[in-house]
Amino acid sequence: QSSKFWGADSDSSEEVSDDFSDSSADSSSSSSDSEESFQGASKYLQDDSSDSSEDDRRVIQSAKERRHTELKATVSNVLNHLSSNDWPELVKSFEKLIKHIDKHYAMPEQVSNSVKRALMQVSETVDSAYADKEHRQNLSTSFSKALSALRQRVAKYMKTVSLDTNLTLSSGGDSETDDSTCDSIAKKSEVEVDKKDKNYLLYADKKDVTYEMIDEKLQDITASRGKKSTDRHEVVRHLLYVRTLAKCPAQEVEILLHIISAQFDMSNSMASCMSVATWRNCVVNVLRLLTLLKGNSHIALIEQGEPAVRVDKDTILNGGHVELAGSLCAFVERLDDEYNKSLQNIDPHTQEYMSRLQDECFLLILIDEVIGYYKDLQNAESQVKISLRLLSHIHCKTVLLYEAMRRFAFERLDTKHNHKQVIIDATQEPQISNMDSYYAADGFCFPKGKLHEVVSHLTERVYTIGDQRSKVRAILYDTFHKSVCGDYDTAREQLLMSHLQQSINHMDVDTQVLFNRCMAQIGLNAFQDGAFGTSKACLSDLLASGKARELLAQGISPGRHSVERNLEQEKLERRRQMPFHTHVNVDLLESVFLVSSILTDTHDLFIKNRQPRTSNRSFVRFIEGFERQTFNGPPEGLRDTLMCATKHLIEGNWMAASDYITNMDCWSMLPTSEERRDYVLKLIVSELKREALRTYVFQRAAYYESLCLNTLSAMFGMSVDAIQTTIHKLLAAGLAGSCDPPTTSFAVHLTEPTALHLAVTIFSEKLTVFLDANERSLGVHVETEASPQHDDEESYMKQRSARQSRDDEREDVSKLRNMRFPNVSHSTATCMNVGGDSRKGSNKRYPFTGRSL
Amino acid sequence: MATDVGELASKLDAHLVLPLLEFAASRGTHAKADVDAARVEILKKTHMCDYLADVSGVSVDAATREEVLKTHETLRAAASKAAEFASDGAAIKAMRRDKGENAKIAEASHGITSADVEALYTFAKFEYECGEYASASEHLGAVQLLSADSARCESALWGKFSADILLQNWAAALDDMNRLRDALETNASSSAYVKMKQRAWLLHYALYVFFNHPNGRNSIVDVMFQERYMQAVQQESPHLLQYLAVAIVANRKRRNMIKDLVKIIQSDSYRDPALEFILALFVDYDFKKATEKLKQCDDMIEKDFFLIGTKEAFDENARAYFIENYCRVNKRIDIGALASTLEMSASAVEASIVTLIRQNKLNARIDAEAGVAHVRVETKSINEQIIEKTKALLSKTNALTQAVLANTQAQAF
């Protein structure tokens, strides 16, 4: 047995010894200069080395050359070992080759074709040897070890350089000549050679390029996607060229899909945005893709799941049915995202921003066309998605702005059509210009119809086919748009009808932001309409928190809030920001809110027998803060000015107050016509007089036995009738007093409450609040606790839902009755917490939830 | 009012518009020629040849008339079996609410199939179009009982409703209206939007009932203040608000609804004299404007087909409200001056002030010699105010305790 064992081993031992001797020889040779070990192999080299020994200068001159020969020698060495299946040796020489390539070439792909071919050969032989099990079993341990090590090494290496190897093999004939020329013109600069080599497809005569060649190139590029070493810009440039070679629409579509993806790949993180040029180019590409898809109904894009197996070349060339993986919807959405991102990143006060804004009309055109495409496909989901994108762009435009944009787009398209000019001029690639001519020829045009029509058309479509969230967004866009266009009544009605106030805090942050924007816009509208109370109600929650900027996604308020946020949240916040040109002016909002508060709430401060009304706490806080200051200089800034005005108003000096208010420069930002603005200012002044009168009555009237209406009329610059009406209203609202028509006078019967009285009043009020809170928490408690313990769950649910619907009804009716808006503001109180502290808010509201029982 | 007839007519059956037009003609608010032209237009849509001939003065050619009669005959023949059944009062009474059961009974005892019912429906519709409202109403009632198809029942109900209105059978019409309301609510197949439209239509039809049925002025308030119907009014036909306003003012029992009405008016941009009167009187306390609007209201009511019946009640109550609010804010009231602004006699004003005093709504004494009422203003002392405020707290707390106990007990079991 042992002999057999030895006998069996003897063969391998021979081999091993063989191997040893070989390796020792090799190691000795390799330890000496590699050039020497191959002196016989290359005459050229021999000359070179002899040259080098003779003349140093020449050696320095031909360093590149020498490197080349060195490489060549290594390659031939590798090939030698390969042909003799000498695995351990091969491992060494292969390593050497790789080292050499790594050392002298920045990109492994830049090596000459002969080297590549050698690499391919190594890889193939090693693979086949490894695959041949019998052969492997017969090998000695060291050999088989070497083989498997080699296989791994080769596979690993080939992965990194796989780009062009396929191509080299497939076009063997070409590369042969290439190779020979490469060898013969070794003196030429390496870079040039490499370029020629690598782009060989790109330089080949157009007629010679076959369908397969392009296909393979595409596959290479797909394989290289996402690798660190690939130059993304290079890939795009190649693809753009390859596109011009495309053999049939289907192939062009495929290449376009690759180009667009590659262009999206060019920016390497979520934070950074695409360059403007790339973006424009990408739009053109997507448009071209769209044209192709529309013109060739046999090409289908599969957006979800795997496309069917590729059909063979002939069917494709003959226009058979082709399925490709890709999604126009995703492309458009990505383009839109990138556009917004770039707007976020550009300083809005620069020319750059303006020129970027011009691009919006191309985006609109693109989106509109894509909607049409999906409409034809009857793909509801994508249609809704894209419609919302379009809405997000146009909802904040006024008719004027929109028409200007349309004109701009027409002009651009027109000039292009006539002169075949480059429409999107910032693209450096020469290929783009002929793309553009397609683009113009296909007659893409701006969304047809008036702005209202476009918006209503889009929203209606979303209402009919969209899901819940899309519908909500569409309603909000529509509302915002109506309110921007000044259709205040409809906007308000629509928001109320949608009942969104109740559910908005369960929506995503973006929708909440949109809702807040709607509220802000409607508040502005109400102000312009002279509905100061409504305006105040709309805006109070937005501004009272001091986080208006965050709530509207318009930047970050200075102050303590910014400290609390961690890095991640801040990033999110920044990504959420609205582009500058869509902003609602926060300063304007604040002045509108404060002026509305002044006009409606100043007299509240002086109502005896109770605390100042809690509904407008922020206003009260501002005034208190202002009064606390020891020295009030001339007003600076918006809030200061308005507080100054309030102070004058309280003193009865309505003229000074109206001067302060009407001279504020923020009114020029009111988005209305000149006349309307004057009208609003007039309204403000007359309302200011009335408020001054009210404040006066509450403050001073108690000190008079009777007040003469004529005197009051002189004091406040109002007609006697107007004063009478105002006072009647106060009386009807519960002010103790009466008018005396025969003497046109008026008296208030007030007794000054003592401190005890006041204290008791406040206490009783607090008790009421307390009781209400208890009641509410009980209601909540019953609802949540009882449900799981109920035996007959279903009947209970029925009962409950019935009760709820009844409650809803009641609530609805009460909303109808309660002038409608206070309710809106009430529910927004909870929903405004975009920052995430809604929990805190609700806890505050029901302090005893979960503990009281 | 010219627009109003049009607005109303847009949501009324052709037959129902005719009384409106006749009224308009009789009041002389519109040129007779216009009204007649409108009537002819409407009559052309119906089969009422004789009436058409009457109005237009042109005799309809005999062929058309003949044809109508012929169709009538054929339809009658087709529906004879069912019609017989429908006129059998005892059989109808034997019917129950359950529809499936009804159809079976009818089939078993009288051999009436669903095809017969269908024929009866077609016949009744034709009858209605010919102006034979009485028999149409009877037949449609039977259809409504027998038909198993809910859509058919609904349209039969609409037909019966308008037939009863045209017959001025208000009790039946009110009954129809309530059934129709139920039918609309329970119809699961129509969308919310369609339902809203239908409610608006229903309210228009119902105006006839509201202002003619003795209890109608109560039911208009009840129906319209339902959230669903109010929505329909606000969205579809805000011009109905004036009918509501007049009905509320004219109906003393509903004075507590005025507050709610005010809120609705304020939230809506629609305005007309009646609504403006209410705003001026109850919101702005602008008595000058209120008098002005009151006059306009009187004018408007004069010319309105529906409201004319409420004129007296409205006049009386509107003035009473006026006096009440006037007294509330003024302490010395010159009765003569007030009477002249309201175009009432001084004694009538005095009488209504006395009524207010008697009802404890006003603490005042009348100085008959000077013709002045002195209102005594009394302010509640702060103590009283506080007591009033805290009074409710105890009962509320008790109720809360009860609720808590009930809840814990329920949990214990």
Automatic annotation (TrEMBL), chain A:
Keyword set includes RNA-binding: no
Ranges where the record places region Disordered: 1-65, 783-853
Compositional bias annotation for Acidic residues: 11-21
Bias type Low complexity, positions: 22-32
Annotated Gene Ontology cellular component terms: eukaryotic translation initiation factor 3 complex
Keywords: Cytoplasm, Initiation factor, Protein biosynthesis
Gene Ontology terms for molecular function: RNA binding; translation initiation factor activity; translation initiation factor binding
Eukaryotic translation initiation factor 3 subunit C N-terminal domain boundaries: 44-161, 172-600
Keyword Metal-binding: no
Basic and acidic residues bias (residue ranges): 55-65, 804-815
Protein name from the UniProt record: Eukaryotic translation initiation factor 3 subunit 8 N-terminus-domain-containing protein
Automatic annotation (TrEMBL), chain B:
GO molecular function, one term: translation initiation factor activity
Domain PCI: 196-380
Localization in the cell: Cytoplasm
Alphabetized UniProt keyword annotations: Cytoplasm, Initiation factor, Protein biosynthesis
Keyword Zinc tagged: no
Principal place of residence: cytoplasm
Any one cellular-component term (Gene Ontology): eukaryotic 48S preinitiation complex
Protein origin, superkingdom: Eukaryota
Biological processes, Gene Ontology terms: formation of cytoplasmic translation initiation complex
UniProt function note: Component of the eukaryotic translation initiation factor 3 (eIF-3) complex, which is involved in protein synthesis of a specialized repertoire of mRNAs and, together with other initiation factors, stimulates binding of mRNA and methionyl-tRNAi to the 40S ribosome. The eIF-3 complex specifically targets and initiates translation of a subset of mRNAs involved in cell proliferation.
Family, as annotated: Belongs to the eIF-3 subunit E family.
Assembly, per entry: Component of the eukaryotic translation initiation factor 3 (eIF-3) complex.
Name of the protein this chain belongs to: Eukaryotic translation initiation factor 3 subunit E
Organism: Ostreococcus tauri (Marine green alga)
